[in-house]
Amino acid sequence: MSTAIAESRKTVSGTKPATPSRNGGTYLFLTVMAVLWLVPFVWTLYTSLRPKSVTDAHGYWSFGGGITFSNFEVAWKSGFEKYLLNSAMITIPAVFFAILLASFVAFAVSRFSWRFNITVLVLFTAGNLLPPQILATPIYQMYKHLVLPLSFADSGSLLDTYYGVIIINVAFQVGFCTFVLSNYMKALPSDLGEAALMDGASVWRQYWAIIMPLCRPALAALATLEVIWVYNDFFWALLLMQTGSRLPITTAINNLKGEFVSNYNLIAAGAMITVIPTLVIYLVLQRQFVAGLTLGSTKG
């Protein structure tokens, strides 16, 4: 009886069960990849805990010589508290406005049928394919020649301001957020909008009181991904910020380089401090993070 049931299940599913040898190969591949990913992190952590005098004498690829936390102390006292605050001042508004603007566009292209909704969605999605490096020069020149009052920006332009880094992060992240949210909103029943329209609900009320509450799982997953991505950004702050004290923490690691000699133990300690907020966010919001990675593939 059990054999017949097993055969019938095999016939229905049309797939063969994974063999032990196939599972073994998969586990071996995953183990090798995990080791390859962990070796740089573990070695950076180990380097951050070693005195510079030991690594100067025996090289960085060596063992022994004692463990010390002095590198972390020196890195933190170099202003990392201020750099963490700078990262928060850039990351929080950038993520908020990117998701807010993306939700407007996603609502318009997914819940209403109009002439250019597909065109607009394609334009926003295509923006994700542009590498930031090819736009570096025109964006830098635009920021440089955009004159602003000194009461708004002490540099007289968008260069060397938090506004400039926030704006460029919003611009580059809103395309991905629009793509994800539009797919999620398309999966919601169209009857919701029609019923609300029959009850006299305005477009804004449909957006704010009906659609957005239903998008909370997608918004939570998206916000988790965006916080990590914007926080980890290194390129735009390095290009657009000129004052060292205004740099976010990921870019400020460059300030740990000495004028004549580079202390890589100190830089490794600074990198480990930089990882801590991202690691905490991932551990606290792990479920939303994993959901965010599969959000665009399971909806729509």
UniProtKB/TrEMBL annotation:
Cellular component per GO, a single term: plasma membrane
Keywords, ordered alphabetically: Cell membrane, Membrane, Sugar transport, Transmembrane, Transmembrane helix, Transport
GO BP: transmembrane transport
Residue ranges constituting the ABC transmembrane type-1 domain according to the UniProt record: 84-285
Subcellular location field: Cell membrane
Chain ranges passing through the membrane: 27-46, 88-109, 116-141, 161-181, 207-231, 264-285
Major subcellular location class: membrane
Keyword Cell membrane: yes
A Pfam short name: BPD_transp_1
Membrane topology field: Multi-pass membrane protein
Entry annotated with the keyword Cell membrane: yes
Protein family: Belongs to the binding-protein-dependent transport system permease family.
Protein name: Multiple sugar transport system permease protein
Organism the protein comes from: Spelaeicoccus albus
